[in-house]
Fold this sequence. Notes:
Layout: H1 10-38, H2 42-81, H3 83-110, H4 112-119, H5 125-138, H6 141-157, H7 162-186, H8 195-211, H9 214-220, H10 233-248, H11 250-263, H12 270-306, H13 309-346, H14 353-366, H15 370-385, H16 390-413, H17 418-444, H18 449-474, H19 481-493, H20 497-529, H21 533-550
Helix pairs in contact: 1-7, 1-12, 2-3, 2-5, 2-6, 2-10, 2-11, 2-12, 3-6, 4-5, 5-8, 6-7, 6-8, 7-8, 10-16, 11-16, 11-17, 12-13, 12-14, 12-15, 13-14, 13-15, 13-18, 13-20, 14-17, 15-17, 16-17, 18-20, 19-20
Amino acid sequence: MADAKPKLNTRAAGKVALAVMASRVLGLVREVLFAGLFGAGRSMDAFFVAFKAPNLLRDLFAEGALSTAFITVFSKKIQAEGDRSAWALASKMATLTLVFMSAITIAGILGADWIIAVLAPGFDPEKAAFTVLLTRIMYPFILMVSLAALVMGMLNAKDIFGVPALASSFFNIGSILGGVTFGWLIDPSFGPRALIGLAIGTLIGGMLQLCVQLPSLKSAGFRFHFDFVWRDPDVRKILVLMGPSVIAGSAVQVNVMVNSIFASFLQDGAVSWLQYAFRLMQLPLGIFGVALSTVTLPALSKIVVSGDMGHFRETLAKAMRLSIFLTIPAATGLIVLGQPIIELIYQRGKFTGTETLKTAEALQFYALGLIGYACIKVVAPAFYALDRKWVPMYVSFVAIGLNIALNYLLIFVLKIGHQGLAISTAVSATANFGLLYFFMRNGLGGLETKKFVVLGGKSLLASLGLAAVVWFGGQWIPGGSEYFVGWATSFFERGDGLLLAGMGFFSRVVLLLSLIGGGIGVYLFLCWAFRVREVEDALAVFAKKFVRKFGKR
């Protein structure tokens, strides 16, 4: 009997979305805690730039190129030759990753001075020296998350998605608990030196991200053994795929890095404003874009083995339409409610109203590129499943070049400031997706473009209803900073102040959540009225689960 056709597992995508949402929320908690303790100035600029060096390598080599290339080859190996051959390949790649990334770690520690000179040429000597120290502490992070990404790829290829998606939550938990603990031990007043504790916490989080996945990997059947026989056709395929994938997958992250370089020439705090804004934008990006790409790539890789390109086209088109349907309302909400969201989440302690305004300006422009960011996550890996690895690489060159040119124009010529960096990133991400879509459509002889355009138009119209609801309702949200400042002062000055200030804060939480919920409801209703298929699919899945759970009671 023939095997069933591999297909896009939307149910798994939902589980991954929930797991990624938990990770993104914990990441946001991490950012909020650090913002309250350290603000958004000189010290946090140093920490964020120091973290960018190993984090960029994580996005490129680990969770980017290595993960994409490995899943592509490993999934095909399972489909064609079975688990035994696939696990043998996994041991070879695990050994190679351990050796290579250990060397990268040592090189990064020794060369931290040169790395920071490139990443932050505008930092003064004292600020640069502190950034170098933090970089050297955090650099082993890349080794741990590279191995974690390889394990994630093995589990995803075996259709195990929940635990790998939750692994990054443990990174955030470890970095929060470890960072705050060691920060307090180093400097109880949480001055700049306490950031060394946060750097140590980052290492603890990376270790947890790896270790939490190992029991599931063992249950899936993997038994690691050192294997230095790397002259293997499949290892070679992975490495060949990784080359262009590193460059292609680098576009967004390199653009963020380029933004930091340009921001280092601006006033203290610019790097932090952009970081906090990008973190908020990553919440919907991670929930929707990453979740869909996680379950799409293994399915597409297996479909290629079967040779059914019609099914390949249908699966990819469905994933992209889902991405559009989910990210348009998210982008609209961030644009309209950016400032009250940031004020509610971040504005406390050393994070002042000025930081709120500056961060909101960056977020609103970043959000313009959210649709492009999410769709890149889905369509770029499809080129590797088709062994058309060079196309995303060439497209990324264009996107990076466009971003650099726009940054120079907006910062040094038009002198727009940090908002210009967010604008250029959004424009380059949108251009990146547009070119990838064009080449994929031509390569497949079509990509259900009419459905794509119709869905985009209907979703945009529905998002106008969402925008109207949240904008009008937003006029009723009380002004913000007094709740956060008042919370602290009244707590220490009056015994009953905590309750009164707390009621003010939570009333704003309820109002904001109600607005978001109302806006989502209006969006879904309008999409349903416009006969958007994705709404019907979602309702059908919900109804099926509801009947299964409660129908027999």
